[in-house]
Amino acid sequence: MRIAILATDEQKQEIMTGKNAGSNKELIFLKNISDVKSDTEFDAFFLLTDDFPGMTFEYLSGKPVIINSVINTLQSAKLPANFSRINGWPGFLERPLWEIASHNKTITEPVFKSAGWDILFVKDEPGFIAARVLSMIINEAYFALGEKLSTRHEIDLAMRSGTNYPFGPFEWQEKIGIQNIYMLLKKLSETDKRYLIAPLLEEEFRKLISSQPK
Fold first, then answer.
1. 165-208: per-residue pLDDT in tens?
2. Degrees (nearest 5) of the Cα angle 205, 70, 87?
3. In DSSP terms, which residues pair with 120 in a beta bridge?
4. What is the torsional sign of CA 81, 128, 50, 14?
5. The sheet that has 27-30: what strands, in order across it?
6. pTM, whole model, 2 decimals?
7. Helices (DSSP H) in the chain: which residue ranges?
């Protein structure tokens, strides 16, 4: 099975590190969606960058298409039945197990089996499972920091030591990006008040946005 993967250099490195992709010669990494001329070239497509919003995908009709979409669901985006979504945030592509939300498991599962990748099918919900849990942990860390209960370094150290996490909450936030965390929490808080954004996290997000060129 020939699989086209549109990915950044960082995403490619994570996949090759976590999934041993370098040994599979049927994985073709692309830099631009324009490199794909038709669906006859490949059996499946991974579109993991942000370079394709607004494009139409009629020529990929029927072939499995896996996109990087952590917050927006397949249903909300009204994507065709051949689409699935995964979490392509920094740090998640190198995980040994990927969470997948899919319209059609029958055509999606063989793609991952052919590449030797382990997957877990989950509900088509914002944040999947891992990102929802992690965003809440980061949010709680911001509540604690805002209340001056501890420092960033001490909170990170306590989480790494106490839970054996590879990163502390603030280290994860730096890796993933505060924009991603903020937007996921904002979406989740629309239906669940447990995800209401910590004031300090909101403040840091607003400062970042205001500092960016307009």
1. 889 999 999 999 999 999 999 999 999 999 999 999 999 999 99
2. 115
3. 99
4. negative
5. 27-30, 3-6, 44-47, 65-68, 83-86, 97-102, 118-121
6. 0.89
7. 9-19, 74-77, 105-115, 130-146, 152-163, 169-176, 178-189, 199-211
